[in-house]
Amino acid sequence: MDRMKEYIRKRVLEICAHILETKHTVRQAANVFGVSKSTVHKDNIK
Asked: Could you tell me which Pfam families the record lists for this protein (predicted)?
């Protein structure tokens, strides 16, 4: 379980950095990373 949490933590940090650097919307960032918009929202609020 900790391995999965680490994977999610890494993805959150990468997506957040991407959004800050590119000024992409959540939808655009989700598309770049191949995840859903809902996943980006869910990961970032937990």
From this structure: SpoIIID (PF12116)
Task: Give per-residue pLDDT as tens, 15-42.
Answer: 999 999 999 999 999 999 999 999 999 9
- Who's near 21: CB < 8 A, 6+ residues apart? none
The total domain count for the chain is: 1
Does this model's pTM top 0.70? My answer is: yes
- Distance from C-alpha of 16 to C-alpha of 9, rounded to nearest angstrom: 11
Q: What residues make up the domain containing 15?
A: 2-45
